[in-house]
Specification:
764 residues, alpha/beta, Rossmann fold, Dimethylsulfoxide Reductase, domain 2, Barwin-like endoglucanases, 3 domains, six-stranded mixed sheet, six-stranded mixed beta barrel, globular
Amino acid sequence: MSGREGVSPITPRDNNVLKIKNTKSIAAGIPAATSSLIHGIKKMGVTKTIKTLKTVNQKDGFDCPGCAWPDPEHSTAFEFCENGAKAVADEAMKAKVNPDFFAKFTVQELSQKSDFWLNNQGRISHPMVLKEGSDRYEEISWQSAFDLISQNIKQSGDPNRSVFYTSGRTSNEAAFLYQLFARTLGTNNMPDCSNMCHESSGRGLGEAIGIGKGTVTLDDFNHSDLVMVIGQNPGTNHPRMLTALRDAKRNGARIIHVNPLPETGLVRFKHPQDYMKLSFGSEALADIHLQVKIGGDAALMHGLMKVQLELDAIDHEFIKQSTSGFDELVDKVTSTTWEQIETDSGLTRFQIETAGRMLAKSNASISCWAMGLTQHRNGVAVIQEVSNLMLMGGHIGKPGAGLCPVRGHSNVQGDRTVGIWERPTESFLERMDAACGITSPREHGVDVVEAIKQMDDGDVDLFFCMGGNFISATPDTEVTANGLNKVKLTVQVSTKLNRSHLVTGETALILPCLGRTEIDVQESGEQFVTVENSMGVVHTSRGGLKPASSMLRSEPWIVASLASVVLEDGRDWMSMVNNYDSIRNLMSEALAGFEDYNTRVRQSHGFYLPNPPRDSRSFNTPDKKAHFISHDLPDVSIPDEMFVMMTIRSHDQYNTTIYDLHDRYRGIHGNRRVVLMNANDMIERGWKSRHIVDIVSHHNGADRRSDGWQVIAYDIPRGNIATYFPEANVLVPLDSTAAKSNTPTSKWIICSLLEPGMEILEEE
């Protein structure tokens, strides 16, 4: 093991005072606008704040580096949300992490700082290297950095001992070059953040409807009779979605919210821009909140399907002509008892029937979901249960209806579309090979969980991260850190300082890149990149700010420069980055649906990629039909005195980036080391608010412990608790994953809550 003694992979204990206030009843509004401006001005200054917020998500502007919610065709002067504004301010901040900064701190000292502190230090300005045996980063030239990586790859001798990770903010152009480089090198080892979030959606929908994507457009929300929002907190994670839900509600749609926690964004919403129109009211969104127990969604879906069958709210013609497996599904659903449905879901039959009648009356329904469904042992299966429910009523391939997995990162869907995938299809590889003149490897590569296991086994020489914060995003923090420490060279392409720069291999590189907000100038002039949103629209993104440092380089340039040093394939890699049109011309040939790419992407609002279920109600499955896929309900029982824990984000957080120490909507301020717990569960144990406990997770006979958490009473089902990540990631077992997708089960962790220092009682 090469880990540097004293470097902590775990977020340090938070000793700040915890303040608890009332939960907010209204999302957005003036507080959101105020918070956006405060964050912007504090980090960017007044002028820069106004400039960036006027160009984010605008034609000829840049795509928000936050979530992947699509832009409306008729945008307003300010087309951003609170967390989007924070993401912009965070990227465009004035402060710099330069060589002088790294000279002041050892990696051990930096690892004792909080994630919030690390992120708040500013933009990384220069390429840096942490040499073997050293505890401080020092400056390195770009050429020397590429030579170091090349040396590592050539000494390794086996392409499959290199792993190339991708975060969801990487542009289509950079991701395409990245996967072309890896496959030319000879490996499909391309894990990405999808493996940890919507992999279950892709696998589940691919089997059910022949495409691993959603089937709705933004305009469908204007024509829907009913929208189900399942396992999702739009007010914090996708705030601009609230506008679409508000508009749907104004057009007569009903909204059903399914979640173990009541989320403010689904209660009432106030659009900040309405104040400019002298409109001061707020609007209720959800008509009903179904507070399922963690893991109870599959049982709920069975209950809703029972109601549809009883009311004959079935599209018989569509089922007969376009689907298979319906009779088997009917048998499975009808054999499921209401007693089991109520027990497993935590809901009453009356509640489920009430929602079921709402669904039965709808001619066009949309089902939306996020990680509240995907990060479970049955993540693939439960998404197929949602698909079953929608197919049953014919809610697909018509206006106002369809399936809508809501992606988190701004281009996570685009990265997968252009080839970032460890399990590529043969049809994809054949077209790629023909267009690019290569022979891609056919052996499947490793996903995130498999990559960590290989690192821990000592089978990885190079771990290259195109963005992200790997150590803070992944499960089982100590195991992941142990694996990273065994790698010979770890490389991070980054904009901001994070914990993954401190938990490294024997040698580590930081390569600073341009952000989404910054001007990208190459030999032919100013460039733009492209991204794909949650609904399959590919469009341009063009930064308008001066780069934070003259030493920053674009992601396409970094990949092309590396390829030109490592590979001897005869391709003029650098000519492609001189003008990104050259990259897109190659993508036109290599990728289905990207034909005439340079012309179509320059259209106002870009273009839709092909989507057979949405476009023609056709399904690219072996039998050309949509599939009802039946499943038994999962076992959601837990031992007495134990809890099911799920990890969640705070409001001042986006993925692993901590903007501030508050969760305003939930009324939690100043401290993140908290356990949200049912008040009756607390009373039963004699615990008051802020009582200190240790959390111990249990899986396959092994325990993981995290000390010093404060319990607070919250509206959550009994037997369930919630904690923030990345602090709680240390409790998520690496080998607890969803069937088929291998997604970590961050929403299903069996835990005990113990008094500090109390030993775990062994069973007789």
